[in-house]
Amino acid sequence: MLTIKPSEHTNVIEFELDGGLSREEFDLLAARIEQVISEYGEVRIIEVVKHVGAISPSALWADFKFAPKHLKDFSHVAIVADQKWIGWFSELVKPLMHAEIRNFGLDELDQARYWIRNVTANV
């Protein structure tokens, strides 16, 4: 299940994945990201991953089409997860993204929030 945390008047989007991901959930997140990009020109992401469950094939396909269009629209990404493979994956995609990406453990969520909201340099 994907939960998008409420936020207004900011280019920061925080969301949490705890289980599976449906196409409808992905579409809601993608729409929110595009709204922020339209309003601010770029977006900062806090992605909290508690548990990864089944991801619908249509959500994967939608992400596959969405991501390349927005690689340069993410300025900073904080990935908050305890699964080591998520950190390894983020290291693999770093060269493809314009964003500064940092990994945090679940017990470091407050530090991730502080970093994403207070970093001033654009990459």
TrEMBL record:
TM spans, by residue? none
What top-level branch of life does the organism fall under? Bacteria
Known Pfam families for this protein?
Answer: SpoIIAA-like
Q: Signal peptide position in this chain? A: none
Q: What is this protein called?
A: SpoIIAA-like
